[in-house]
Amino acid sequence: MSDVYVLPGSLAVRNLFEDLLGREVVVGPGEPIGAEEVPTSSVAVFTDNRNQMYAALALDLSLAANAGAALGLLPAGAAEDAVDEKELFPNLAENVFELCNIFTSLLNKEGAKHIKLYQVIYPKQDLPADVRQVLLALGRRLDLTVEVTRYGKGKLSLALAP
After folding, report:
1. Burial state string for 87-108 with b = 16 or more CB within 10 A and e = fewer than 16
2. H or E segment at 116?
């Protein structure tokens, strides 16, 4: 087993979202999720076989709500309500968990460590300091703007742990 790290490209992210949501998704370069956005973001923590943190993935509230609503075939208004109330409702959170779990497929590569979803931390939940540090660090990361057709767009940041 090698120490190969897998940072997916934007095309792979777009394809995953499109396949999962069953609709067109536009992905482009984006700004990293900033410290002020972390408390309202959904953050997935991925670990390797030794339970060492491998990566942190953050979806800002807008992307989490829009992708969660699209995955659940809910009207766009459900996502807008979540953004207006600055809260990811349980039905949307359940769909975001599933999205993050499937996102794991982009982090695994044959011959490399097996990566799995460890947990998803939702808005208003405490984010562990080590996860926050990885998420906000410079280095091996991917920052994108993701727009889900007929729903809306938001930010996605993936940062690999050192």
Report:
1. bbbeebbebbbbbbeebbebbe
2. strand 116-121
CB 137 within 8 A of CB 53: no
Q: How many Å apart are CA 82 and CA 92, to the nearest integer?
A: 9
pTM: 0.94
Gyration radius (Cα) of the chain, Å: 15
Q: Which CATH architecture has domain 10-160?
A: 3-Layer(aba) Sandwich (3.40)
* Angstrom distance (rounded) from CA 139 to CA 72: 34
Note the helical H segments in 53-89: 61-71, 76-84
What is the C-alpha separation between 146 and 119, in angstroms, rounded?
22
Segment 24-53 mean pLDDT: 96
Vertex 139 angle, CA 37 and 42, to 5°:
30
User: Span 129-147, mean pLDDT?
Assistant: 96
